[in-house]
Amino acid sequence: MGLPFENIKRDVHVLRDESTEDGYGIYPEKRTISQKLEGGFILLDKPSGIRSRTAAETAKRMLSSLGVSKLGYSGTLEQ
Amino acid sequence: MLLLGGKEYVGIMHLHGAVSSETLEKTIKSFTGKITQLPPVRSNVKRALREREVFYLDILEVMDKDVLFKTGVQSGTYIRKLVHDIGQTLGTGAHMSELRRTKVCSLKESDRLVTLQDIDDAVFYYVNENDGKFLNYCVQNIESAIDFMPKVFLSDYAVDTICHGSPVAVPGIVKFNDFSKNEKIALFSLKGELVAIGDSIVESQNLYGMEKGIVVKTDSVVMPIGTYPKYEREKV
User: Are residues B43 and B67 in the same domain?
Assistant: First the structure.
């Protein structure tokens, strides 16, 4: 038994045959670390006892030397 | 987006009195499916009875009065309340002594879960030893977080207009997953980059017969403008 959407496999339907040009954009798996830091996410194992906000601020401080200026969190654990 | 999906938790329910294992098992099972819950006094939502779905609720281990459980629930289910209500039904009373979220939507603990210490170490290796392998592991592509959503793949020529907030029309679509009307759709480039999130205004079945017309209304744009070239309509 799982959650809805967990392990969901979706069929891809092709409307027309078209490919992408390599001159712009980037395949996600080819992103550099700086590119990932511009819009990526970290799945954090937050220790109990500190706020999510504190954990996010700590992570941001660690990454600030690499140019990360914005870092937030998603998902509150309201019990 | 993650807020909308289901959650899985592992927690400890502390019983306030002795309960036979049959009664415990039976009572816990009665709290699966649709349940009605009154949000706690101190909560961030309106305090009115609301229905939530408990997809599964299993006992992992019982040690004296402590019950280790695992549960998968609809977003917005209060686990402390759920445990309290189970305690009331049992007659002994119960409270939740520990809780850990183990899944959100399609993200789970085994999907590169890292600690703050891991991040600190990864930054150290990257900065001091020019080794990015740990940091690459810690930081994931945003696309992985929304993998559970239906996707629409856009033509290179449509990407920039979507970055400007335009809705997605049929000619801009190359590939798609099935979706229904009013569903949250992830708009992807053909390279697999997340461009934006939108809401479908028709169901995907209709796409085959359509030559033009709007399919998805763009809601929030992720990709910066100018990543893809501007589409110049050819003058006829």
Answer: yes
